[in-house]
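Example record

Each entry pairs one chain with its bound ligand, EPU.
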Amino acid sequence: MELLEQADISMINTLALPSKARLLIDTYTVEELTEVSKKYSLLAEDILILGGGSNLVLPAFLDRIVIRYLGQSIRYQETDTGELLVSVDAGVVWDELVNKLVNKGLRGIENLSLIPGTVGAAPVQNIGAYGVELADVLESVEVFNIEKQITEILSKKQCEFSYRDSLFKQNPNKYFILNVCLKVSAKRDFSLSYGELQSLNRNSDLSVHQVREKVISLRQAKLPDPKKLPNTGSFFKNPVVTAEQAIKLKAKFPEIVAYPQAGGRVKLAAGWMIDQSGWKGVRSGNVGMHSKQALVLVNYAHATQIEVLSFAAKIQSSILEKFNVVLEIEPVVIKT
Ligand code: EPU
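Structure tokens for the complex follow.
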């Protein structure tokens, strides 16, 4: 276990916002985590559970105990049906896991290649890309319940996953994610319904490596590398509106990008709306919307949370004015 007071956490958030925490504690085993929990009588509102910091908007000073669980083990267990259950500790870097499984010829998470962050953070926002969400392959999540001070295994259903949302996102810092169990297989069908992956369908010898390589090239063409240009990926969620509102919008903006959802609602491409409103590539002081993907807010240098949020508010009011649609911020905003 490692403890650091007044810890500089500017390097552990991919938006690179300058931030200090009252105390940073790194734990490596469940026993250490239990010990910390007892010693500091942790309450959800006094802590911040940190993974890779790739989905956070941090304040200059965080008057909380920031805790990381850095367990690294990966265990495999074959099922009766020839699939594989992979139990992965929260501290493993997500894309290293994807790479490992792809190298074993295992299918299931190749579309989620190159997503920044750790395995433990993945269920919080139910990471998703190119037609696949974590929930599609997840079996269960092992957590340390801070209130009850016990470890629990939550089934997929109990995790209450939906688009970029989960039980964990709805109850911040209540569940410490320890381990995520995924079901993968050497045989399952690829998910190639997303526009730019459809061309792969024509290749009957398609390998899981090729799908990963294609996803990586798509991401690298549009999404800035947080190490070079700090960002949190999509800064806004794609808004989901009623069918009635979607019809009105389509009449006014025939080119609007809209995806019908189960249950009749319609998801709109926020990136398209931001782009159409003239924000793509626009810089304001230290922040801006990326020139290749208008949904990604970037920190050019030394931005603060205040600057990020006031720029985001300008985008939100511009979209509300033009489209009458409310844009919700996708990363977790921590105020104090
Ligand atoms: N579009 C524009 N201009 C832009 C950006 C997008 O016109 O500047 C249009 C595109 O041409 C396309 C549509 O909007 O018709 C959707 O764009 P894209 O396919 O790039 O995906 P997205 O909806 O903007 C979502 C996820 C991404 C994920 C991609 C691919 C959310 C909030 N974002 O973006 O996830 O990689 O789909 O599946 O759901 C993330 O969550 O951080 C993230 C990067």
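The chain has a mean pLDDT of 96.
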